[in-house]
Design goal:
alpha/beta, Rossmann fold, 2 domains, seven-stranded parallel β-sheet
């Protein structure tokens, strides 16, 4: 393990790792509250690897449940990194990929299984995943799993797990639903709180622009030119909007791609691989995949559309400033969205700073009418007027809605 940590360049434990690892090594249950980007994966990955018994042909000893496919791949890769030099088989199971490939990997033997609740249940019903040998169950980003409706699936899985097991629950927030889950399925857990008093980390500078909807794209283009980010994520509210912004931005900026829930899993994996390798400079994404992106070189976050839920702002901005690094976040706010900005500021207990780009007007200039009696006014009067149709109202414009 020490050799693996040296190879991964993990020299000092983060506060979460220093708090969770010693307790988890004793086999006790842990309920840990910590935001993403604080080293949570290693905090449960290291104890799991240290406690493995590695019996040949035995069923898996550890199960890690995560909310998204991207996070499943990320956790598996991190555990593979930590198990360097040992014969430990970690298998990721998630939807969007052919189940036969995953069945084949499970049949060859898996020590640790990482998966989304729906696909884990699928394998359990097929008999390709047996839980009777589990020593440790991890619920990673439990709040997110409950938010997107995985509670019934999680409870079905936990009821099928051995009663004599260790349960580690890690969550950015401990909402009442998370507390109820812990009370029902955990045994006297040690509660650890690593969350900051402020919801977002201090190493992230946070700004906002007041901008009209039709000028957002021009502002985005100017902002990228000014900032020259190492890597950036641009968050949009809809899948269609994500595609549209990516197409337009790719014409003026190099290294642009997008990711959202309607894409095939193979395409999403390919985009994430290119982003982690640094071949994509700007990634346009929806909130659906926002939590599955953990790349330490992300320097900028742009909220092209202000998030519908204030909590989503915290998770979006948390993609940068990982593991104590500096980061910057910009939010585009239309004149009608002032209330949403206020709600975000109240949640994070911090005022966002207003920013402007020199020489760029974020509002459309309104043409002033000519002065009465001026040559411009006379010219306007002399212009031929359009004929007025019977029953119509002159000067009135109608727009039909779909």
């Amino acid at each position: 393990m020490l050799a693996s940590l040296e190879k991964a360049r993990y020299h000092q434990p983060s506060p979460v790792q220093a708090g969770v690892i010693p307790i988890a090594l004793t086999g006790k249950d842990v309920l840990g509250q910590a935001r993403t980007g604080t080293g949570k994966t290693a905090s449960f990955g290291i104890p799991i690897l240290e406690r493995l018994e590695k019996k040949r042909g035995a069923p898996p000893e550890a199960l890690v449940l995560v909310p998204t496919r991207e996070l499943a791949v990320q956790v598996r890769d991190e555990i593979d990194k930590l198990s360097h030099g040992r014969r430990v088989r970690t298998v990721a199971v998630y939807g969007g990929k052919p189940i036969r490939q995953q069945v084949s990997k499970l049949e060859k033997g898996a020590d640790i299984v990482v998966g989304t609740p729906g696909r884990v249940l699928d394998h359990m019903s097929r008999g390709t995943l047996v839980l009777e040998g589990l020593k440790t169950v991890v619920l990673d980003e439990a709040d997110r799993m409950l938010d997107i409706g995985f509670r019934p699936d999680i409870e079905k899985i936990l009821r099928r797990c051995p009663k004599q097991r260790q349960t580690l629950l890690l969550s950015a927030t401990v909402a009442p639903a998370v507390e109820r889950l812990a009370q029902r399925y955990m045994h006297d857990p040690v509660v650890l709180d690593f969350s900051d008093k402020t919801k977002t980390v201090d190493t992230i500078d946070q700004y906002y622009f007041t901008v009209e909807q039709q000028l957002k794209f021009d502002l985005l283009q100017k902002l990228i030119q000014r900032e020259q980010p190492e890597q950036a994520i641009v968050f949009c509210r809809t899948k269609r909007g994500t595609d549209r912004i990516q197409r337009r931005l790719a014409k003026v900026v190099e290294g642009v791609d997008c990711i959202h829930g309607d894409m095939a899993q193979g395409a999403r994996d390919k985009v994430m691989r290119k982003f982690r390798d640094g071949n994509i400079k700007v990634l346009v994404a929806t909130d659906v995949v926002g939590r599955g992106i953990d790349v330490s070189s992300i320097s900028h976050i742009v909220n092209y559309d202000i998030p519908q839920a204030s909590d989503d702002y915290v998770h979006r901005v948390g993609r940068t400033g990982r593991m104590g690094r500096d980061g910057v976040a910009y939010t585009f706010v239309t004149p009608e969205e002032g209330q949403e900005l206020t709600r975000i500021e109240m949640l994070i207990n911090r005022l966002l700073k207003r920013d402007e780009i020199e020489g760029f007007a974020t509002t459309t200039p309104v043409a002033k009418p000519p002065e009465p009696g001026s040559p411009e006014a006379k010219e306007e009067e002399e212009k031929p007027k359009p004929p007025q149709l019977p029953g119509s109202r002159r000067g009135r414009r109608h727009r039909r809605a779909l």
